[in-house]
Amino acid sequence: MKKLFTLAALALCALTINAQTTISFSEVKAGGSLNGQTITSTLDGFSLTVTDTKKKVSVDGNEARFGTAESNTLYEYRLKSGGKSSSANCMSIAVPSSGTLEICVRTGKNGETDRNLVLTQDGKELYNKVVQEADATSITLEDGNSSNVYPIVAVPVSKGTVDVAYPTNSLNFYAFTFTPTTTSISSTVQAKKTNNVADYNLAGQRVDKNYKGIVISDGKKVIRK
């Protein structure tokens, strides 16, 4: 029965690690209130840190859909950078493993066609493209009304910190989503599995990791000295 519980726990762990995790916003925040704050998520190690010493970054209510015409998500709040990035106005995202980072971002102004989003990690540029309102797709909702759907920026990332820059002018961020790669999931689950393998002596008695001599570990004979 104990073995069954262990397997069930491993399966649950795999499902938890495999799930996408999103950081979004649910309430209004005044400029400067997020300075030095780290917004955490349900996934340990995935977080957003904001630097806003000039009190320009804020959160307000603003609806926008992101995704594709077939599959999209409506967000009701946005984080406004309040100007171009600098040492006094910037953001960074911590990611716990390799995977895909998705960012829901737009300018909010049709006439702005030069505002770019730049993502870097360990000095390497991961992404540098202009964000335009014209990239949105128009769809018809179930109630008959039309709505724009904005594309999601998606980039592969490694474990560490991703720096978010907007060097031309302000951008509006609605959500940050992280999905671990299959390799990261497998490695984590395998490590947990290895740590839970029971060892037995030749008499069939369970022994701890400090036992010296011949043991049966994971179905194999091992000599511990």
Notes on the structure:
The chain is mainly beta. It has two domains: 20-180, Jelly Rolls (Sandwich), CATH 2.60.120; 198-225, no CATH class. Helices cover 14% and strands 46% of the residues. The protein contains two helices and 18 strands. The protein has helices spanning 2-18, 182-195; strands at residues 21-24, 38-40, 47-52, 58-67, 72-80, 89-95, 99-106, 116-121, 124-130, 137-140, 146-150, 153-157, 160-165, 172-180, 199-201, 206-207, 213-217, 220-224. The strands form three sheets. Strands 1, 4, 5, 7, 10, 11, 12 and 14 form an eight-stranded mixed β-sheet that branches. A six-stranded antiparallel β-sheet has the order 2-3-6-13-8-9, with no helix packed on it. A hairpin with a 2-residue loop joins strand 17 and strand 18. Helix 1 packs antiparallel against helix 2 (182-195). The two termini are 32 Å apart. Residues 1-17 and 184-194 have low confidence and may be disordered.
Give a summary of the structure in a few sentences.
This protein is mainly beta.
The biggest beta sheet, please?
8 strands, mixed
* Shape by Cα distribution: elongated
Q: Care to count the β-strands? A: 18
Average residue-wise pLDDT: 85
Classify the secondary structure makeup into a structural class: mainly beta
> What CATH architecture of the largest domain would you give?
Sandwich
Poorly predicted sequence stretches spanning 5 or more consecutive residues: 1-17, 184-194
Q: Output the CATH topology of the largest domain.
A: Jelly Rolls
Helix content: 10-25%
Strand content: over 45%
- Taken together, the total number of domains comes to 2
Number of helices: 2
Distance between the termini: 32 Å
- Radius of gyration over alpha carbons? 23 Å
CATH top-level class of the largest domain: Mainly Beta
Give the helices and strands as they follow along the chain: HEEEEEEEEEEEEEEHEEEE
Protein name: Lipocalin-like domain-containing protein
Signal peptide: 1-19
Keywords: Signal
